[in-house]
Amino acid sequence: MKNDPSSLISHKIRESKRIAITSHLRPDGDSICTSLALAFMGDILGKEMSIINKDNTPFPFNRFPDVESIKIGQIYPQKFNIIILLECADVSRSGQENLDNYFKINIDHHYSNYYYADINWVDPEASAVGEMAYILGEKLRIKFTPKIANHLYSAIVSDTGSFQFSNTTPRSFEVCHKLIELGASPVKVSEMLFSNYPPEKIKLLGQVLSTLQMNKKGNIAIITMFKKYLDALNLKEIDTEDITTLARSIKGVEIVLFFKEVQNNIFKISLRSKGRANAAFIAEHFGGGGHVHAAGFTASGNYEKLLREVSEEVEKLMEENTKKIRRQGKTKNLLT
Questions:
Q1: Is the pLDDT of residue 336 over 50?
Q2: Count of CB atoms situated within 10 Å of the CB of 211
Q3: Among 153, 170, 194, residue at a domain's last position
Q4: Which of 138, 161, 194 is the last residue of a domain?
Q5: Distance between CA atoms of residues 100 and 90, nearest Å
Q6: Which one has a higher pLDDT value, 197 or 31?
């Protein structure tokens, strides 16, 4: 199709010589592994590929194969034909400061995106950009190697929480099925993702879970990771998704607020929800964004005050959303 963004991207990649890939600040497994897969696809096509991120690669992905090829820093002007931005709602989300005059390609699976690039491929129905990259590889008629398949499989497994999160779809399984046939190793990926924890991570898990608080209704769980926890355990960057998943598994909990202290009086607040609780709606209210069941925002202020005010506001927003759903249901019933 003429206006299909994946086809437009395929054409642009084929006509370009030097290509850079970057992802969002504090990159995750989806953007990191997809970057590596896309770089290897470009190598097959004879392109000069570079992966340049503003922030360092976090654990456990800093131990993944080929990750040493990722450069940390800024993309310089006039060096590449195109820049591919992964999971960036806007250019500022990448942390890159020199992209104004570049031809930009925006690939994202979050619906909160500003469509800022020369080619925008935003698919909120996709489980991960890794899933979208597989489709792009097919458009490019790439011969998928086991290495590429493994990176794409890792991206999808990572972003779906090993197929536990609500972004898991039939297409997720279909693509992963094809990737396994192409040489991806589910056992190897699971070991790298979930069996690589240092003892310090388990100690951190206990400390964070000890901060657990619940609202009176029992539908909001709040946990906190103070910077002193990381400092005491000599941990700098570590994946904490499993901690949130544990809190979300509590019976009756619809949403988890995970306060992560970035520096004094500044907190990155991750939201993980289930059922009808809309994490993206709540995050956007506070100036953030994300998926329906996985979103986040940043807040500044005294911790105790933030804890009280944010949790109270979230409870109000959840009640508003519930009323809205009920009204829509009544309207639907009247129309049928």
A1: no
A2: 16
A3: 194
A4: 194
A5: 12
A6: 31
